[in-house]
Amino acid sequence: MPTPTFNSHENEGQSADGLSRRSFLRSAVAASGLAALAASLAPLRHLNDFPTVDQFLQKYYKELTPEEMAKVLKRIEDEVEREYGLRPHVRDLKPMNGVEFVYALNLTRCIGCRKCVHACVAENNQSRTPEIQYIRVVRLPHGSLDLEKAEHNYNPEMVPEEGYFYMPVQCQQCKNPPCVKVCPVHATWQEADGITVIDYNWCIGCRYCAAACPYWARHFNFTKPSIPKERLNPDMAYLGNRPRYQGVMEKCHFCVQRTRVGRYPACVEVCPVGARKFGNVLDPESEVSYILRTKRVFVQLKEELGTSPRFYYYFDV
Amino acid sequence: MRQAVRNYLVFLWRSGRLAFVGDWRYYAWMGVLTVFCLLGLNAYAKQFANGLIVTGMSDEVSWGVYIANFTFLVGVAAAAVMMVIPVYIYNNEELHDLVIFGELLAVAAILMCLAFVTVDLGRPDRFWHLIPGIGQFNFPASMLSWDVIVLNGYLLLNVHICGYLLYCRYRGRAPAKWFYIPFVFVAIVWAVSIHTVTAFLYVGLGGRPFWNSAIVGPRFLASAFTAGPALIILAMQVVRRVTATAPAGDAAPLGREAGAGQRPKSRAAALGDLDLLARHLAELSSVSEEVRQSVLAGAVVLEAKAGDIFLRQGETEKLIFFVLKGRVVVKREEGGRLRITRSLGPGEQFGEISALAGTPRTGTAIAEEPALVLSLSADSLRKLMSVPRMNKIIRSRMSERLLIADRALMTLRSIVQVSMLINVFLLANEVFKEFYSGNLHVASSKYLFLGLHGHHALVPWIWTAIVFNLAAMVLLVLPVSRSLKWLNLTCVLCIVGIWIEKGMGLVIPGFIPTPLGEMVEYRPSLNETLVCFGIWAFGLLCYTVFLRMSVPILQGRLAKANEGQAGFGVSGAGPQPAAQL
Question: For chain B, which residues make up each domain, given as ranges?
Fold first, then answer.
């Protein structure tokens, strides 16, 4: 029969000797447990991108007062200088009144040379290893816009090729952006000039926006980005091309550091065939307004999804 | 108030201590789990330092096995609480204690879910951005913000319900209905919501045609109600096994040893005996003198020495017993093993369920120490129960009996059976729509089921899942799965099949090909796999501790009543050596 459990003391019947052996064993187990815990946490000694207290406590972009923003910008300049040995100029550029940017891309002209891709990487301080690029140029067979048939690995030395055309895809700056809708922390939003931006200090890196984007435009820093010091572009914007952190999302922002001070995006400037047009659609005199007014056919990629891109593909003939 | 807090802390302390007490099998099991937890923690520390680059994920496939496990476990959590429905809505007594085990499983599953989302974050240090009021919470636009609310809410609900019921059992008092029944009903609706919201995470993405299908929500529920109860069936058998005292064969069926197993001496009961009972059962004082007198007619007091038997499993006689003094243990022989169902002290009753229902005894009651027990006829009990306060206490105790009967497992089996049929049917619907219409969006399905452009990493997986699910479905429909051996095999098939189907088979192909038509495959890295094992080990560790704490309480072995009698013994809840019998 079972011994009555409730009346028996746990250590009943044990000699003092047994007790001390037991307590010795207990402390040995506890000590080796702690040692194992410490050993398993050892990799934390080599933290890549651990946040400083200021970074950790930084407020949300839209809640920063101008004074706080000035401090943040200075701190970021210090951080970049420490890391790259070069003092950048980081600005918080706001959208201009009466401006809505749109992009128009002439598929008849594009030759698939990928110069835009590399100009973008240089301008926007994108990570070289691992490689992050905002623009993906694909090759499609004549007559089809079916992306399932897209060739991503064509050789840009051989372009243009007979029977194919080329289509660069980047952030389409949707009027109804799914990425903004799904972000759980408002780390990405659409600004008054139509540009969808990311606060790299607020993004938690859940990558839900990457899953939501139908254009594969959002790219994630799987590790700390690396940029050669001599290639760093020191002309930076908070919502634009300042160096990103490990574990955050980034994407094309129409080169806010240029376009919000009246310059063209880098990809527009570099295009050797003039396939890329950019401007203010609210200005009836602008080139993009003219294109949208006069071209009989233009394409908004995956129009059926209702994202309503501000990026228009058109044809000459 | 102060006393209440003290009582509660003592309760937590005493039950918490149980987690550190057990026999060598318990220590071995906890040791293995701890090792896996530490390996996982180490792998996560590497990921935390170097970023998600140490996983197999990429820009092309930006969610992997973390989110796959998360999705599966939300289902387990949701299904675990759905056990509640048969109990509270259909009054199925058999499942009653399973509910607490089910809800504890839900708690463990939610903890794992939260761990899986946390390890998936690129910036876990910015976790606070998600806290409503402190951070920026994109509610209601982002489905992820809904998920944060429903998962944490569900965690709190279940912690409250289990904690309260267990605490009441510990205090030996009936739980106040208003303090848990409303929460139970909220939890039922909430369970559906957590899985629906998780499905909507995927369904809401127009740019991913593979997920953008209205049937994903119902599929999630069907697969959850298959895998969840299947997991509970297996877990309950483990619980049953470790709470069993010894194989019944060796047990010298219930005290055939010399001097034991006798029927106790009896004498006619007197009013003084009822007064003795009233001291431990305050509700008896509300019974009028008249009723007491009529109850006494034919009542008998049994004077038992340790080992005497009051009633035997399988017998049918309509007597009900109240313990007046000493302790009585109830054991049940089941599946070839004998286990302690509960241990009763003064004021508690046994034998009432079968006496009232006229069914065979489901266990054997033995005096654990010299005991005084009052025996009444079923009719006398009915007379007592005509007094509202007595009725309430006796009914609430009846419904609190710890029973993991085979019949309860069979009830779960029928839930799994129906759910698996629906699950397979819904999958067939999805496959038909994808392949028959054959539009451009079939690429992901083609990749998953047949392979696309020379890439077919997932093809063997999904067909394994389909074979497992179909095999499980056939087994569930056949009577053969009524035998526990086959039922266990079926449950394993269900769990593995569904883990693949809705984890890897749903999350990964949504990303392949990319929205721009590129084919990049995904394979979890070793580091990522270790993190997953670590989280599973952590979940099992939590569940083991929860069971370790709750089983003795449900059995009545850990109670406020025995608070002073220090040291809840090692032999209490854990497997006892056969020699003790």
Answer: 249-398
Q: Which residues contact B60 (CB under 8 A, 6 or more apart)?
A: A216, B511, B512, B514, B518, B520, B522
Model confidence at B436, in pLDDT bands (50, 70, 90)? very high
**Per-residue model confidence (pLDDT) at position B244:** 53
Look at the block and give the residue holding tokens 């949208």: A292
Give residue-wise pLDDT tens across range B495-512.
Answer: 999 999 988 899 999 999
Nearest Cβ partner for B62 among A33, A211, A223: A211
Instruction: Give CA torsion, residues B93, B98, B99, B104, to 10 deg.
Output: 170
Q: Is B27 on the interface with A (CB under 8 A)?
A: no
Q: List the domain boundaries for chain A.
A: 114-257
B-chain residues near A187 (CB < 8 A): 129, 136
The answer to whether A8 and B567 are in contact (CB under 8 A) is: yes
- Assign B46 a pLDDT band (cuts: 50, 70, 90): very high
B345: closest chain A residue by CA: A6
Cβ <8 Å between B207 and A41? no
Question: pTM score, two decimals?
Answer: 0.82
Average pLDDT over residues A101-111: 96
Tell me the three state secondary structure of residue B133.
coil
Q: A40 to chain B: which residues are within 8 Å by CB?
A: 38-39, 41-42, 45
Q: Which residues of B touch A169 (CB under 8 A)?
A: 516
- At the topology level of CATH, where does B249-398 sit? Jelly Rolls (2.60.120)
Report the alpha-carbon distance of residue A280 to residue A254 in Å, rounded. 12
Strand extents, DSSP E, chain A: 89-91, 101-106, 136-141, 164-169, 188-190, 196-198, 219-220, 235-237, 249-250, 276-280, 298-299, 311-314
- Beta carbon pairs, A and B, within 8 Å: 237
Mutate to test the interface with B, among A40, A129, A223, A244 (most CBs of B within 10 A): A40
Least reliable range by pLDDT among B55-69, B328-342, B440-454, B566-580: B566-580
Cis peptide before B513 (omega within 30 of 0): yes
Averaged pLDDT score across all residues of chain B: 85
The mean per-residue pLDDT over the stretch B342-360 comes to: 80
In angstroms, the separation between the Cα of residue A269 and the nearest Cα of chain B is: 25
Burial class (CB in 10 A: 0-12, 13-18, 19+), B265: exposed
Number of other residues whose CB lies within 10 A of the CB of residue A106: 20
> Which of B54, B59, B67 is the mutation pick for testing A, counting most A CBs within 10 A?
B59
Provide the shortest C-alpha distance from residue B358 to chain A (in Å). 29
Contact criterion met (CB < 8 Å) for B135 and A130: no
- Give the lowest-confidence range in A251-255, A294-298, B156-160: A294-298
Question: Average of pLDDT values for A200-228?
Answer: 97
pLDDT at residue B576, as a whole number: 35
Q: Among A46, A130, A181, whose Cβ lies nearest the Cβ of B49? A: A46
Q: For the domain A114-257, what is the CATH code?
A: 3.30.70.20
Strands (E), B284-363: 300-304, 309-311, 319-325, 328-334, 337-344, 349-350
Confidence of residue B537 (pLDDT cuts 50, 70, 90): very high
pLDDT of residue B564: 64
